[in-house]
Amino acid sequence: MLTYHFYPPDFSGQGISLFAFFILMFFVSSMPMVINNTPIFLIQWVTMAVFLTFGLFAEMIMVQLGILVLLLRLKIQKDQLFRLPLNSLLFFTLSLLSGLAYFAMGGKIGVDLIENPQYFWIAAAYPIIHFTLNQVLISVIQAALYGRKISFLEKDLIWETVTSLITFPIGLILYILYSEVGILALLFVGVPFVSLSIILHLYYSSEKVIEYLQKAADIGHQMAERLDVNEVMELFILKLSEMLPVDYAYILDIKDNDELHSIYRIEHGQIKPNDLKPTKKSEGISGLVLGTRKSALFHSRKKWKSIAKEFLPEDAESLICVPIVRSNEVLGILLLSSAKKRSYEKSQLMIVDILCSHFAIAIENAKHYEETKAKSERCALTKLFNYRYMEAKLNKEFSRLQNGEREFLSLIILDIDHFKKVNDTYGHQSGNEILCELAGRLANLIDEAGIAARYGGEEFVVLMPDTSKEDTLAWAELIRQTIANRPFILKQNIDGSSSSTKVYITASIGVAAAPEDADDSLALIRHADRALYVGAKRAGRNRVAEYVK
């Protein structure tokens, strides 16, 4: 009201012109570009012409209407409704300060800039003041509300600077032309500029797609470099979360060709256990995507709530669901969700689809590598580590001992007593059964305390990092009892009968430890082996012996 009082407008006979300006502003406001979460809309040239023609009050009203159109176009969420009064106050302050600065410089409303060139430079200074105040106010508000560091080299500022350099001269041209030909000026200037706005909007959209494609290519290369399945999944979700607003992410695997199971789950940036209830592959959003093999995009919860059977949280709104396809076969489903409505666009869905193709290839490569590595490191019969792996691991651990990273390094070697007799009595297939069951007992007993491996034939070794010789002897005795006190069940007898047979066996065990017994890895093996044969085998078998110098 004070603005109306001190700067009263003269709208007599100008109703149609004001309405025409509003229509022009409506089209421009409805085509914003959102850069770094900052909407940029090009109404300044329209409001500048309104200000110079009708005065400060008319410009303020026009700006407020433009903000309303913009926020309706952006479809802000309920939790962001504070932006309406905040932006209204911001632009009210901006209009007031810019207008006061214009009048303070001696500017006038409705002046003919061609006949009075001294006012031209004042009118030209108005948009510069308006632009500067706008950047300062926006930076201060973003720093106060969102904690963003004040910077004048952001991408959104560069875009706004470029567009302002284009639009402000057009605003002056519109004002001068309107003074000469009236409302037709809006047609002569407005139509080309609206076309320019559409072109800029499309250009920025294409720039975003190109940027997404470049990021997708980089992510694809990074995933291809990973040779661990879990690392590939972690990198995939991490990079997706950096590109898109992701609150919930799930990678679903098809199990038994019937159900979809979560194999990787992140909620609000935290990895969660995969304890979600599986869904049938014909049910829910993921089932729909699996069946059609087509990606799905939903802008709000009400769009997908009726078909969802999944484990989606209550606050999930926007949703992307994409099939993970490799060699024309669906390997799984990716499901992304945001707690905000309309968080995703069709172009982003396309990018996620491309990334899923890269992901499928990276996962297959990682699985193939892990399988190949396992075959080279594991005994095909017992599934324990083999001699090659144990030799490399022992050398590595001994280096860590010598570097001071380990305090102790102990080694257990065990040999099954009279194993040839077992093979001769029950057959080699039964002997293999015993080797497999013994390997299972070793793995379960040792767990993470050490590393068990098949050393060759009926010999097994257990490497015990950071375990003293005394403690290792206790472990060895526990292993001996585990073997001797529980029978081994043979299901394949040499006579071909189907009845199970209980067989008791024993093992002799040797123990050596570094640094007290050995100063290199070969010496540690040699001394543990000596303890086995001299201290255990020769002393009667079924016992534990330690290396004695």
UniProtKB/TrEMBL annotation:
The keyword Ribosomal protein does not apply. One of its GO terms (molecular function) is kinase activity. Gene3D superfamilies: 3.30.450.40, 3.30.70.270. The chain crosses the membrane at residues 16-35, 41-72, 84-104, 119-145, 157-177, 183-204. InterPro entries: Diguanylate_Cyclase, GAF, GAF-like_dom_sf, GGDEF_dom, Nucleotide_cyclase, Rev_trsase/Diguanyl_cyclase. Keywords: Kinase, Membrane, Transferase, Transmembrane, Transmembrane helix. Pfam families: GAF_2, GGDEF. Residues 407-549 form the GGDEF domain. The keyword Transcription regulation does not apply. It comes from the Bacteria. NCBIfam families: GGDEF (TIGR00254). This is Histidine kinase. It comes from Cytobacillus oceanisediminis 2691.
